[in-house]
Fold each of these.
Amino acid sequence: MLTEIVQTDTPEATRAAVNQAVTLLHSGETVALPTETVYGLAADATNPVAVAKIFEAKERPAFDPLIVHLPSRKSLHEVAEVPAELEADITRLIETFWPGPLTIVLPKTALVPDLVTSGLPTVGVRMSDHAVFKKIARAFDRPIAAPSANRFGRISPTSASAVQEELDGRIPLIVDGGACARGLESTIIRLEKSRGPKPFFHILRAGPITAEDLKKYGKIVREEHNEAVEANAPEAPGMLASHYAPRTPLRLLASPDEFVPQPGLRYALLSYRGQKKDGYLGLTDWAETLVLSPGSGKLPEAGIRFFHLLRQLDQLEDIDEIIAEPVPDRGVGAAILERLRKAATGSGV
Ligand code: AMP
Ligand code: MG
């Protein structure tokens, strides 16, 4: 299959790209689309044959459920049951954070095929804030299933060229909407009624909407380290211990003194701020050093650049190991650390 890439750099080009994408979605095809998080591989969420093409192109195992993107807040009821005891909380959340990078896991309706949710009774839903995605979602006016547009387990794509590297020849169209504004996949939460006025928010995946952003609306419970996740157990489909993995082995350090270079090996450094005083730059004669947030040490900037730089490091020849500096465990830093841990677990294969 020939993979076409279309631009959205003028209003006319955008109109043509939207039409082409919507036509393909209607005909049960997949299309790679830009979102504010990472590029997604989209298909009609109500059409199991179309959804199956997502799994096939990504080589994604059927136990890893897809996120469903809505054309509007009011279409939530088509794909999800909103429990009465959580309705006010959910309404507040979607009015605050949608469109945006917050996925909410809710009981699914019969409209959503089991393939989308990997047989789970729940569905993850969100609304993208990307201008081009929004146009396509509104014109299509149906729920769109869209996981990240990478081969299963690999580095998420934050540009059209990264999608091309991952899926060229496997999908008919990539809509180029520029580099992704957030660069990290959406935050995923599940709500649970508590005895107090605020519900529990179980954070299933850390992301651009941070625990700090959410805590005004609920009591935060972080779930990424539970045992089911560590063991890749089927109770936690999708929440795999290994993900985002480069082909080169990757190691996340907790402190500079953990690193003892082996003679003859070539190391690349993924640095947080690229500052000597952090203690990592001088550890060895790095074959390459890439900096997540040059100088200023701003976590959102690090988030935007994270997958792009990881992909760049993974493309270097003759690197034996990628060494990652830790980033602060706050704000978007929590999402970066979660991904670095998973990248380290699955790297080098
Ligand atoms: P991706 O869109 O590639 O980032 O993958 C979507 C991820 O969303 C999956 O890997 C799961 O971790 C998560 N997810 C989707 N649906 C559900 C659900 N119903 N329950 C829990 N997690 C989900
Ligand atoms: Mg993914």
Amino acid sequence: MDSSSLLPKSNAKWTERQRRLLTEIANDFTVSTEKLETLTQQFVHQMRLGLSTHDPQELAMIPTFVTGRPDGHERGSYLALDLGGTNLRVCLITLKGNHQLETHQKAYTVSDYLQQADVAELMDFIAASIKEFIYSEHISSKIVEHPSGSDTLELGFTFSFPVSQTAIDAGTLLRWTKGFDCPGAVGNDIVMLLQLALDRNDVNVHVAALINDTVGTALAHSYSHSNTFVGAIFGTGTNGAYLEDTRNIKTMTLDSNDMFINTEWGNFDKGKNCLPVTIFDNKLDRESINPSFQIFEKMISGMYLGEITRNVLLHLIDHRALFDGASSTQLNMHSAFEAKFMSVIEADDSESLNRTARVLERYLDIHLSTQTDREIVKLVCQLVGTRAARLSAMATAALIRQGLEAGSLRNQGYPLKTSLHSEESVDQNGNGDASRPPLHVAIDGSVFEHYPHFEERMYDALVEVLGKHAKDVVKLGIARDGSGVGAALAALIATKSVTNSR
Ligand code: BGC
């Protein structure tokens, strides 16, 4: 991608200084095709390292104990719990078979206080919310089938933080992300902490499964799209999981053929060795709650995109290249510029950028922007947003490349490039196998769903890394509410395997 194509024609009313600064910034934020390729190779290398050792690696590559995928015929009623940000969702999912399901759900707000409170307090809040949901929604009358045969409700818990799993219903928290920092959780078993809180609060619920939201998203999508290979989140945070051949998981011996691996890709390139990290990213990282962690997440996800943009805008203001050198109290505040403003600005196709002017006035207290100011603000959003989409595609492509070169997609004849130097995988006639079913990538998250052009920018980069057939073979699809439905499916998988082994 050529960043200069985003800069205005030389007859535009930009000063020399504006043009010079913006050219520098555009260069810093541009991820070329060659860079995408280098990053993909490095990513695959890190995946393999993470799969081969117990020593902590930048990509944790966590075995999830979720083997196999649902096929849409599963039945039963399960509770699902989804905690990954400021909202806690409690759901009752009724799987009806034939790819049909029904959901009842209620959201509860996890206050700023609770996000930093002792973990026992957080878990008591969760238990109380489940209790309230069961009573207020008359859940017992809606159950069509009690999976365990007793009147205990089985629950799947989507917990969207890095957890080292030891079984489908056990796992210890490695670290908090996304602004959470509750003492007493890191190093402890999340299922046990929740089960204790449920028992303490007399809630007759059994925690049957613990999963990451990426795995939930993949499972939920599988219920309606067979051949779902990747589950990814591009929202407040980011992460991806994929189906790995268990022979590649050197850290354990397993009976099954395939297992979902939670890559925890937000921590890719922890040492900042290959990502195109700018001074604006470094500033954000330094001021964050978890400096030096989740570097990749901080370049991609909704929690951070606005802050990177704000850092760039302040730099331009300080160089008198924007708003005549004047900021506002609002724009000077940490996190004041949100990713949702970028969405509005990027979607603003009006000639005088009216909607951009409105965002600047209403939310940032900047009342006197010129046309050039607004063009610059839009350009900065485009640069930050495009980089995020291209890096998101790179990580997705790396998971697919690992599957094609060494994992569960090997020998399946997909017409995709597996590395820069290899020819595309083609059959004897020089074509890819057109009869192959598409490879589904299940995606949830506000950035993918709402950020303008994110999906098409991802597809462009996928083609650059995986070759021209990528657009036909790889299907990026929204899996809304993957966390809820996926948790229920994981609870089903867990209870069925317990019943089967009895
Ligand atoms: C967490 C992941 C999660 C992702 C998306 C990241 O901050 O570390 O576990 O999957 O956010 O919610």
